[in-house]
Structures are given as structure tokens and as C-alpha cells.
Amino acid sequence: MAVAKAAVQTIVEEGMVENSAKQGELLKSELLSLDQSLFKEVRGRGLFVGVELKSELHVDGNDFAKILYKHGLLTKATHDSTIRLAPPLVITEQEIRQSVEIVGQGLDELKKLNEQRANQ
């Protein structure tokens, strides 16, 4: 109980819930500012954000997750067509922007891979 109490106290004192809400909105809005041609939807609550790819593509969430990993961003592919972003509750605005920049670079690579597979 002492550990649970200390954990909850830290979450409250450091404003992690508020930071999650604020940075989550920034994350979603920045993702929506990227080229949406491969995205079906960007959704989430707080810092738990999912990016769903269109189903008619020749690439999937696993391809996207691998590309992002190569650039240093850890994500999780779920349901084949979605990647999940779940950054730490203490993430900063600068780190959000860096992450979205990586997603943008990865999106360019994903487009090329999609085109390659479409032409095979």
C-alpha cells in the first residue's frame, strides 16, 4: 500500500494527468497536420493515441512500426492496420514535436514502400 500511495502521490504532485491531457491533444493535432493520404483516422485519449492506416494499402501497421523503430521511435502495431503511441506521462512539448517529426519521416518511407508493393 505504501508503494501504491507513493505512486499516486507522485502522479498528482507532478501533474502527470494534466500533462497527459495537454500533450495528448498536441500529439493528436500535430499528427493531423501531417499528410493524411495513408491515414484512415487518428484517435486517442490523453497520451494513448492510435493511428489507423487505410485498409486498401499494400502496407500495414507492422511495416509502419518497423520504419518508426528504425528512426528511434517505439510504437506498437495493433489490429494489423493501426500503430499505438503511448509516450510517458512526463513527455514534454519538445519531445512530442520530435516524435511527430519522426512519424512524418516514417510516413514518407511508408508511402514509398506502399508504391513499391503496389507496382509488384
CATH class: Alpha Beta
Q: Low-confidence spans: pLDDT under 50, at least 5 residues? A: none
- The CATH architecture can be given as Alpha-Beta Complex
Q: What's the Cα radius of gyration?
A: 16 Å
Distance between the termini: 58 Å
| Beta-strand content bin | 15-25%
Largest sheet: 4 strands, antiparallel
Helix content: 40-55%
Spatial shape? elongated
Q: What is the CATH superfamily classification?
A: Aspartate Aminotransferase, domain 1
Tell me the structural class.
alpha+beta
The tally of helices reads 4
Number of strands: 4
Give the SSE order as H and E letters.
HHEEHEEH
Tally of domains? 1
- Let me know the average pLDDT: 96
Which sequence of strands runs across the widest sheet? 1-2-4-3
What is the name of the CATH topology? Aspartate Aminotransferase, domain 1
Describe this protein's structure:
The chain is of the alpha+beta class. The chain has a single domain, classed as Aspartate Aminotransferase, domain 1 (Alpha-Beta Complex). It has helices spanning 2-13, 16-32, 61-70, 93-118, and strands at 39-45, 48-53, 76-78, 82-85. Helix 3 (61-70) packs across helix 4 (93-118). The mean pLDDT is 96.
Q: What does the secondary structure layout of this molecule look like, with pairings?
A:
Elements: H1 2-13, H2 16-32, E1 39-45, E2 48-53, H3 61-70, E3 76-78, E4 82-85, H4 93-118
Antiparallel strand pairs: 1-2, 2-4, 3-4
Helix pairs in contact: 2-4, 3-4
